[in-house]
Amino acid sequence: MMLLEMASSAFGERVAFGSKDGSGITYQELYERAGRASQYFKETNAEHVSFLAESNVGLPISLFGSSWAGLPFVPLNYRLAADEVQALADRISPTVTVTNNDLASIVQGKEGVSLVTGDQLIDFSMTGATPDPSWNMDPDEIAILLFTSGTTGAPKAAVLRQSHLVSYILGSVEFMGAADNEASLVSVPPYHVAGIAAMCSSVYSGRRIVQLPSFDAEEWINLVINEEITHAMVVPTMLARIVEYLDNDSSVKITSLRALSYGGGKMPRPVIERALTLLPDTNFVNAYGLTETSSTISVLGPEDHREALQSSDERVRQRLSSAGKPLPSLEVSIRNDEGIEVPIGESGEIWVRGEQVSGEYLGQGKKLTDDGWFPTNDGGSIDDAGYLFVEGRIDDIIIRGGENISPGEIEEVLLNHPNIRDAAAVGVPDEEWGEVIIAVVVSRDAGSFSESMIKDFTKEHLRSSRTPDKVVQVDELPYNETGKLLRRVIKAELVKEL
């Protein structure tokens, strides 16, 4: 609430959420509506405010209104099956759930759940007196609960306290740093930490926010052009579709976009190289982070992108595959299985420490070491220039003949093949080797697919122990809604078929 209070006091007349034509709500109106919403939330006697809908103007009202009321905000994944949503609702009841008419039936009549539609909340918040500032200034108060994607077992509820989010914003965003004509396009869903971070960052900087509830490349491009969007954030699969659209229609010109950040998954190097060529005046930023760290840990900045693209030194060009350098407010360390820091250039687990790091799960406590480090379960390395390379989840590492092999290393080579549009590498059980490497690829021209040619191609770029033992062609690879490749799904299908 401190962030919104500062925004309403400094630039309250600016449009916070809405169109360039001036329609929408200003920062002052958002502040007032959050106050009125807080009164409504308190009257329900709920212990949480949950949000079960695509992004709309009710989202920021709910987010800040719940904080004003001192209630944790819990955005729920509306793409889950009904029984999965109901199970999450049980874990946070009693809750008041902000939803829409299409999704309301999922939790309608459920004990411990009070329903209000986004339209009703907007109506409630339009009139009446704005309460005096009464929010709790305790930095340890829970601000947000974010359920993890649940790749194994039931989703865990990551706890983000007020201090974590505010520390991230104060350490990475300049107050009133945005000009009054700047606009940010938010197309990631509200239950992803990047969506929360994007809202808080824009509020603190004073940038107008345009919401795209459901991503479509053509609609995204049209919004950027028509709304004169200056800033946006996408996941790798989104950028791949945007690049493909621009490649297929050279008449489309994007001139307003000054900054485009990406994250949420590994970015294929050919995609970012092509994006840099298509949008030469846009500043690209790769932001790597986790829910448990209140978003960004490290950043590959615009100059890093340009230098890498223009360099003839492959070691410098390789930085396009990196996550850049850690934020100044954070410490990052690469550790082995015993928790001992490994030498520069060696792979291990990424550990992180800092004020914005939560590392806490509801009902499970903090997963921090005694001296405050959070082991991320992501594999990675740091080169001699300080660039962090993320190799993926430790659980995804392929162990072939006793050698640890990063699937990302294989995938990057595969994606440089002219006939491969998308690729994944997984390990499947094998009696002789422990695991063998299976490459699963999506071809640009399925009729020209040749397993032997792809194997030969990878052998030119990788040691023989790291080349795929088998290459399988599929129509598409499975991703979750935030752009993460679901290797566990691929692996399960391969084990069943082979």
Instruction: Quickly give the structural class.
Output: alpha/beta
**Average pLDDT reading:** 93
CATH-defined fold name of the largest domain: Rossmann fold
Briefly, what CATH class of the largest domain? Alpha Beta
Main β-sheet, in a few words?
Answer: 7 strands, mixed
CATH architecture of the largest domain: 3-Layer(aba) Sandwich
* CATH homologous superfamily (4th level) name of the largest domain: ANL, N-terminal domain
Terminal CA distance: 54 Å
What's the topology here?
Blueprint: H1 2-11, E1 15-18, E2 24-26, H2 27-43, E3 48-52, H3 58-69, E4 73-75, H4 82-92, E5 95-99, H5 104-107, E6 113-117, H6 118-124, E7 142-147, E8 157-161, H7 162-172, E9 183-186, H8 193-205, E10 208-211, H9 217-226, E11 231-234, H10 236-248, E12 259-262, H11 269-278, E13 283-290, E14 295-300, H12 302-310, H13 314-317, E15 325-326, E16 331-335, E17 348-353, E18 360-361, E19 365-366, E20 374-382, E21 388-393, E22 398-400, E23 403-405, H14 407-414, E24 420-430, E25 434-443, H15 451-459, E26 470-473, H16 487-497
Parallel strand pairs: 3-4, 3-5, 5-6, 9-10, 9-11, 11-12, 12-13, 25-26
Antiparallel strand pairs: 1-2, 7-8, 13-14, 14-15, 16-17, 17-20, 18-19, 20-21, 22-23, 24-25
